[in-house]
Amino acid sequence: MNKTLLIFRHEFLHMIKRKGFIILTLIVPVLALIGIGVFQLASTDEPPLVETVTIGYVDEAGGFDQYTTQGYIELVRFDTPDDATAALINGDVSEYFVIPSDYISTGVINRYTLERQLETPPAIATVIKNFLTSNLLTGKVPPDTIELVEKPLSLTVTRLTETGEVATEQGGYGNVIIPAIFGLLLALSLQAASLYMVEGLGDEKESRLIEVLLSSVSPRQLLTGKVLGLGAAGLVQVVVWLVSLPLLLNLASSTIGGFFSTIQLPANFLVLGIVYFILGYLLFAALSAGVGAISSSARDGQPLTMIYALLVFVPLWFASLLFIFPDSPIWTVLTIFPITAPIEVMLRLGVAGIAAWELAASLAVMVLSIIGVLALSVRAFRVYLLMYGKRPGIGEVLRSLRSG
Amino acid sequence: MLAVEVNHVAKSFTDKVAVDNLSFSVAQGEMFGLIGPNGAGKTTTIRMMMDILKPDSGEVTILGEKLNEATKNRLGYLPEERGLYKKLKVLDSIVYLASLKGVDRHSAAEKANELLTQTGMSASKNKKIEALSRGMGQIIQFIVTIIHDPQLLVLDEPFAGLDPVNTELLKGMLADLRNQGKAVILSTHQMNQVEELCDRILMINNGQDVLYGDLREIKARYRGNSVLLDSEGELGEIPGVTGKRTHKDYTELILDDKTTPQQVLAHLISHGMVINRFEVATPSLNEIFLKEVGKKS
After folding, report:
1. B47, B51, B52, B156: best mutation site toward chain A, by most A Cβ within 10 Å?
2. Beta strands, E only, chain B
C-alpha cells in the first residue's frame, strides 16, 4: 500500500477512536432525540393551570365596562384612583390603569404599578388595547369585525420563481435554522480538528518518533497522509450529522409540529455541506500541520491555532447582520476568504442564496489555499523538524520559507 | 556495493559548524563505530545519512544510491532519543511502523510475534506502550528497527538505558545481523562497546575526522613499547627494560627501542620465572579517545 495511504489509514482510525471526536459526532443526534423525547413527555401532561391576574382600572371617560375578561386577565373597575391605589397596595390587583376623561381626544392611558419595569409587558399592553378597542367599537361594528381588528396581522408570503411558479424553497427562519446549526457544529469541529493535528504532530516531535517516521517516509507523505486522515474523519462526522438531521427533522415535525414543520433544508445544502466540510477540514488540517511544523510541542502550538480557529466563528458573530442586510458585499468577502468560507456559505444558503460565481470563486480559493498551505507546511516542517527548543519568530519563519 | 558512502559532507547551524568536510564509508557485513564526545557531530552526521537533514555540501550515498523511498525500506534507524505512540498497543505500533517500511501487515505481525518471543517480550504485545518500562520500550524500538530485515542498520546510542541482560541480548542480535551480511553503524560514546563489537571506526570531534580505519590497526598504531607482567618471585635486572611501573595486580615494563616483548618473555622463561600474565600493552580505545580528543581541544 502507498505510504501516504498507510499514514492516512492510521491517522483516520486514530482520530475516529478519540473520545472527543466520538462525543462531538454523536452529540447532535443524541441531543436532538433527547429534546424530542422531553417534549413528548411534557406534552402528554395536562396543560399547566395559568393563574388569573387581576388588573384594576378607573374609567374617568365613561363607557368602558364590557369585555373585562381578556384571556387569563381579569379587569376590575374602581371608582377613583385612590381606591385603585389602595387595592394595589393591598395586593388585590397587580396594577391598574386610568382612562382619563380626555382619552378620546388624547389617546393617553396612565398605568400604575409597584414593579420596576423597562416597559409595559407586551401581554398587558395587548390586553389593555383590546379592552379599549372592544369597548369603543361595541355596538358600532359587528363582533367579528372587532375580533379581526384585535388580531395581529396574519401575512402569508409566497415566493415565486422568475417564471411565476411557486418556488420550492420558500425562505424564512425555517430555512436558516439547519444551516445555522450546521455552521456552528462545523466551526466547533474545525476547531477540534486543528487542536488534534497540532497535538499529534507535537507528540511525535516531543517523543522524537518523528525521526523514525522520516527514516521511512518523506515529510510530504507524512503531512499529506495526516491531513487526508483528518479530512476523512471529518467526512464521517458530517455524514452522521447530515443523515441524522433530516430524519430528526421529520420526527420533530411530526411530533412537535409548529415551527419545526416550517424547517426546510435549502437546495444544494447536503452537497455543499459535505463539500465545504471536507474542504474546511483539509484547510484547517493543513494550517495546523504548518503550526505543528514550527512548534516544538503541542502546548507550544495550540495558542497559534487559536488565530484561525477563532476566525472561523466570524460569520456566526455577524449572522444577525446577515439576516438584516443579506445583500452586503461583506458577505461576498467572507464567502471567498477561505477560513470563513465554510460557515459563511452555510449561513447564506439558508438566508438568501449565493451567486454561482461566488461559489465557484470560494471553492477555487479554498482548493488553492489547501494546496498552497500544505506545500508551505511541508517546507516549514523540514526546516523546523529538529527544533525541539523555542518557537521561531514570524520573521524567521518567513525568511526560512523563502530560502528553504 | 558499499552500504554507506559519505563524501565531503558539511553542515552548519546558525551558531556553529556541526559537521566539517567529513568523508567515510561503511561496507556490507561490517560493524562500524561512529564515536566522539557529546556534541562532536555524530547525530547530525546520522541525520544527514537518513535524509532528515540536508547537508550544506557533500554527498551521501546509501546502498549505492541517493536515499529514496525504496532505499528507506532497506534501512533501519534507531534514533538517540526514542519514543513511540504512547496510546498504541505494542503489536499495533510495530506493525504500523513496519508497514511504513513496505512490509505487509500480515508478515509484519508474524515477524513481530517472532521477535517479541525472541526478546522475551511476547507477554507485553497487547499492552499499551505507555505501560512499558524504559528498557522494554527500547527493546520494542529495536524490534521496529530490524523487523523489515534492513540491509543497513544505524543505531544511535543503542545501549543507553539498557540493563546488562538486555545489553547482552542486543549485542547478540547485532552480531547475528552482522553475520547475515548486514551493515551496522553504532554511534556511541561507550568505547568498551565499540571495542567489543566494531570492525572499523570513525572518531570525530568538533565535526571533523580524528581517527578513521580498522580498529586493530588503530590500536596497534597507538601501542607503546611496554608489556604487562604478573609473575611470582623477584624480577631482578632484565636487559632492554628501561623502567618499571607497579600496578595493583601487575607490573608494566617499559622497553627500550631495540628490545621486543618476545625477547623479554624469552629472558623471563630462561630464568625460570613463574608467569601468570604476560601481555603486550595496548591502549584501550577509551585511552586513545581521551588522547586524541584532548590533543585537538
Report:
1. B52
2. 4-12, 17-26, 31-35, 57-62, 75-78, 152-156, 183-188, 200-205, 208-214, 226-232, 241-246, 251-255, 274-280
